[in-house]
């Protein structure tokens, strides 16, 4: 089950790299505006905030990738702790999103599902 958790963590990291790309690289493009439901004016006005937020997502992804590598080279305790910290933070961010704006429930579900499954699988695997 630990392996399943690590695969899910890797997928969560990839998703957060994609979110970084949308927020920090292509925020004002039609594609990002469709994903986030913003107008060109809103995207222009929030570009700096989105740029910053994108890097939070990237840093979470980096933590998760480093933790997977640590587990792979035999540092289970440290790697598992970092996986749980990284994906737990991703999950917490998804919960904050939906609690702050119910209209963002779909986005929160998309953002939080892989991290939630990671936490569940990893904890079950560590307890086994």
Automatic annotation (TrEMBL):
Which regions span the lipid bilayer?
6-27, 55-74, 80-100, 107-127
Q: Does the keyword Transmembrane apply?
A: yes
Keyword Transmembrane helix in the entry? The reply is yes
Keywords linked to the UniProt accession: Membrane, Transmembrane, Transmembrane helix
Entries under InterPro entries matching the protein? DUF1304
Q: Which Pfam families match?
A: DUF1304
Protein name as annotated: Transmembrane protein
Record organism: Cellulomonas flavigena (strain ATCC 482 / DSM 20109 / BCRC 11376 / JCM 18109 / NBRC 3775 / NCIMB 8073 / NRS 134)
